[in-house]
Structures are given as C-alpha cells and as structure tokens.
Design brief:
- Keywords: Signal.
- The chain has one domain.
- The protein contains three helices and ten strands.
- The strands form two sheets. Strands 2, 3, 4, 5, 6, 7, 8 and 9 form an eight-stranded mixed β-sheet that branches.
- The longest helix has 15 residues.
- The chain is globular, with a radius of gyration of 18 Å.
Length: 164
C-alpha cells in the first residue's frame, strides 16, 4: 500500500511541476528529438506582446508570459480567454497583425504575474485583408496548454539551448 501511495504522490508531483522544472534533455545536433524553444514575453496594459511569437502550426513552446504591471490583486482578477496582439503592421502597414489567444489565467507567484507552461500553437486562422477593405488583416493562433507528463513520457522532445 505504501509503495502504491508513493507512486501516486510521485505522479502528482510530476504533473504539478511547472514547465520550467521539466527535466527534458538538451537538444543535440544529431538527435531526432523535437526542440521546444522557450518564449519569454511581456504583456503591456493594452495586451500587446513585447516579442515576436515563434508561431508555427503545431509547434510546442515553453511559454513564460509575464504581466509586469499587475500586482497580486489585478493578476488574480484576470480570467482566461485573453487575446494578445503583436502589431506587425506598426513596422510594415502591408503586414498582418498577429493575435494569440490563451485560455488559462495567469497566476501570481515569486516571479510576479505569469503564465508558465508548455503550449502548442493551433491552426492558423486569417481574418480581414484587402478583400474586406481593412488593410492586411489579422492572423490568429490559439495556444493550447500541453500536459507536462505527456511531453515527458513521449520521449520525443528536447530543450533548446538558449541564452538568458
């Protein structure tokens, strides 16, 4: 019974571990593993993203999305289903802006208000455009939270070696 309880406790700790604590191997040039890049990004009060999303249908990223302007109460008040914008059109009016949707609400911890997890980019959706008379339009991606245990158990993924 103790052994069985230990297995369940161990599994609970594995499933509850933040994505930053996953023990994935580092990617090597000659392996066949799929790299998971880390995407660290800040969001301003207008829900604009500070860095370009590494968007590609099906790509899994370790997302560290921080809300530096929010205190604990403001962070706790946020609910899921937020849309975040990367305004490509500010630099190039012919480019479509990108909207990223995340269902999960951020949590407040020692690093402030954050969303921290493994997310897969869903299917690309394009809206608007010249045919509708509103410029280049908008490109949309839904980010889908991936269970940590499924990434670990698959043995198909590795951490990219990144600076920072």
């Amino acid at each position: 019974m103790k052994r069985l309880l230990g297995v369940f406790v161990g599994l609970g700790l594995l499933m509850a571990a933040p994505a930053s604590a996953l023990e994935l191997p580092f990617c090597q040039p000659d392996d066949d593993l799929i790299p998971i890049p880390r995407w660290e990004v800040e969001v301003d009060s207008q829900y604009q993203l500070s860095t370009v999303p590494p968007a590609q249908e099906g790509r899994i990223v370790h997302l560290l999305l921080s809300f530096p302007d929010l205190d604990r109460d403001a962070c706790t008040a946020l609910s899921g289903g937020k849309n975040f914008l990367y305004p490509f059109s500010e630099d190039d009016p012919e480019s479509a802006d990108m909207v990223i949707t995340i269902r999960e609400a951020p949590t407040y911890g020692s690093r402030g208000c954050m969303v921290d997890g493994l997310y897969a980019f869903g299917e690309l959706e394009e809206a608007g455009g010249e045919e509708e008379g509103d410029g280049a339009g908008v490109v949309r991606f839904q980010l889908h939270l991936q269970p940590d245990w499924s990434i670990l158990e698959s043995g198909r993924f590795c951490k990219m070696v990144q600076e920072g």
